[in-house]
Design goal:
This protein is an alpha/beta fold. 57% of the residues lie in helices and 7% in strands. The chain has helices at 2-44, 76-90, 107-119, 152-165, 181-184, 188-193, 197-200, 202-205, 208-213, 224-237, 247-257, 259-262, 265-270, 273-281, 293-302, 304-328, and strands spanning 65-68, 93-96, 124-127, 144-149, 238-243. α11 packs across α16.
């Protein structure tokens, strides 16, 4: 009996000793490997407390591409003049399209447009009256989208008179208004009160939202669905959308977010010089008359969807502006 107990104890000791040896051997094998991995990670891994803490030994600056799919009669001519003025000192290109009536493009043309933008040499700002195009859909890198909008009724009134009388550029430039002299000289108030299609047709006055909703067919029709998609795109796909009523704040935000392009833009805008001031002034619409209180009340209702989107953009812009100003103070 004693011999059996001794043998069991001896067997247990042998098993334990073997197990300890096996574990020790595995550890000896793994330690060099762990040390090697740790050494490799140390070459590429850095702990930083802020983005300013770390300056890599070698760096490649990612050249940026900006698309300004500008909305008609929303200060875009002023913006373009500022961009052109800044282009030389900040070393980027301003590229514009003359296909101003091409707001909506088919699927094949979207592919061509994406390929065209991809082939342009950065850094650049491309501007065009064009509804939003989703680059990601075509497997391409999304450019930085920016835009500027305006109070919907103010924009509609400005567009109404611009089509008739143009602006001060090139000797009272107009868009060759097609209509009688009576129709041309009709005020915006008269157009609304006479229930003219140009001023009250929902499909014609639903203008701002489609620029942000995109190229889908439903984006062209006045609906809450189109407004919702436009809001989603502003959140997900636009770096910044401002309002013309707060243009200086919009320029401040651009300079804060995209200094490679807009460094100095506020100074240029506040002290433009005679040549630039003349270019900005001559883009103002001729013979424009504001709506009466009665017509304003009528149109606020008809433009309800446009104002829904406009107020969303304005509120969002003001929050972003406050955050940027807080960070810079």
């Amino acid at each position: 009996m004693q011999r059996l107990k001794f043998l069991i104890l001896l067997f247990s000791v042998i098993i334990l000793a073997s197990a300890l040896y096996f574990v020790s051997y595995q550890v000896q094998l793994r330690v060099p490997l762990i040390k090697e991995v740790t050494g490799t990670e140390e070459k590429y891994f850095y702990q930083i407390h802020s983005w300013q803490d770390f300056v890599p030994v070698t760096s490649t600056v990612k050249l940026k591409r900006i698309i300004y799919n500008r909305v008609g009669k929303c200060g875009s001519r002023t913006m373009i003049q500022l961009m052109v003025t800044l282009a030389k000192q900040n070393k980027f290109k301003v590229i514009g399209s003359t296909r101003n009536q091409l707001l909506r493009i088919g699927l094949r043309e979207q592919v061509e447009f994406v390929d065209f933008i991809d082939q342009l040499q950065a850094p650049f700002i491309y501007h065009h009256h064009l509804h939003y195009v989703d680059f990601k859909r075509f497997g391409s890198l999304q450019p930085i989208y920016i835009n500027l909008i305006r109070d919907p009724l103010a924009r509609l009134v400005s567009g109404y008179y611009f089509r008739r009388f143009g602006d001060y550029r090139e000797g009272h430039r107009t868009w060759n208004f097609k209509g009688t002299d009576k129709e041309k000289n009709q005020t915006f108030d008269e157009c609304v009160l006479n229930n003219m299609t140009e001023c009250v047709d929902p499909a014609k006055i639903f203008y701002i939202v489609p620029f942000f909703c995109g190229q889908e067919s439903y984006c062209r029709n006045p609906s809450k669905v189109a407004v919702r998609q436009a809001k989603i795109n502003v959140i997900r796909n636009y770096l910044l959308v401002g309002v013309t009523e707060e243009l200086e704040d919009f320029l401040f935000a651009l300079e804060a977010l995209l200094p490679e392009f807009f460094k100095g833009v506020l100074n240029v805008y506040k002290a433009p010089g005679e040549a630039l001031q003349d270019k900005i002034t001559t883009t103002k619409t001729l013979n424009k008359k504001g709506p009466s209180a009665k017509v304003e009340k009528i149109m606020m209702k008809k433009l309800e969807l446009e104002y829904d989107f406009y107020n969303f953009v304005k509120d969002r812009f003001r929050r972003m502006k406050a955050e940027l100003k807080s960070a810079s103070s």
